[in-house]
Amino acid sequence: LNQTVVETGASSSQVVPCQSGKKYTVPYVVYEKTWPCGDALDKKIVALLQEDASLSLAQIAHRVGLSQSPCWKRIQRLEKSGVILKRVALISPESIGMGLTVFVSIETGDHSSAWLSKFASTVTAMPEVMEFHRMAGDIDYMLRGAVPDMQAYDLFYKKLIDTMPLKNVTSRFSMERVKSTTAYPIVSDLKPVRKR
C-alpha cells in the first residue's frame, strides 16, 4: 500500500514491572504510519477493495458513507497515486493445474547493476515465476514459482540455471498453504514501537 514508516520523536522509555516486583526500563521509539495521500475514508475504500474488488461503486459508497460521485473521485485518485495498482480476479492454482508451489533461493557471484538488469529481465519473463525479490542476508534473490508437478519444475529449474552463471540455487517446496492473502493490513493508529 506504499505505506512508509517515519520516526516522529527521540527515544524515550517506559517503566515496566516484572514478576519479582522489581522494575526495569524498556526503551522505545514512537513511529507514525503515513500514507502518500488520503484519510480514513480512503483507507476504508482500500480495505473494501482488497477484500472484494467486484463491489459496485454504489456498494462501496454506501459502506463508507459517501455519495457515488465523491467516492468515485477518491477511487480514481487512489489509482492515479499508485495506492491501488490494479483490480484482478484471484484464481485457485490447484483448479488450473498449478498446485505445486516452490520457493527458490539464489546466490550469485556477480552483484553489478548490469548483471541484475539482465537477470531480472530474463527471470521476470518466465511465466512460472509469481514473485521475484532481491534479498538482504545470506541469499541474493528469492523466487516464488508455481508449476503443475515435479517434472515441470525440473524443466523450469534447467531453464533457470541456463540463463546466467549462478553460484548456488536451492529449492524448497510447499507442502500446505496455511495462509495466503493479498490484503495488506490497514493501519491508522499511532502506536509506540519498542526497541529490542
Can you offer a commentary on this structure?
By secondary structure, the protein is an alpha+beta fold. The chain contains five helices and eight strands; from the N terminus they run βββαααβαββαββ. Strands 1, 2, 3 and 8 form a four-stranded antiparallel beta sheet that branches. The longest helix has 14 residues, at 150-163. The radius of gyration is 23 Å and the shape is elongated. It starts with a strand and ends with a strand.
Descriptive tags:
single chain, 196 residues, alpha+beta, 4-stranded antiparallel β-sheet, 5 helices, 8 strands, elongated, disordered N terminus
Summarize the structure.
With about 200 residues, this protein is α+β, with helices and mostly antiparallel strands.
* Number of strand elements: 8
Gyration radius, rounded: 23 Å
Structural class category: alpha+beta
**Overall mean confidence score, pLDDT:** 83
Order of helices and strands: EEEHHHEHEEHEE
Portion of residues within helices: 25-40%
| Unreliable stretches | 1-32, 189-193
Strand content: 25-35%
Please give the alpha-carbon distance between the first and last residues. Answer: 26 Å
Outline type: elongated
- How many helical stretches? 5
Largest sheet data: 4 strands, antiparallel
Record the SSE blueprint.
Elements: E1 4-7, E2 12-17, E3 23-34, H1 40-51, H2 57-64, H3 68-80, E4 100-107, H4 113-124, E5 129-134, E6 141-147, H5 150-163, E7 168-173, E8 191-194
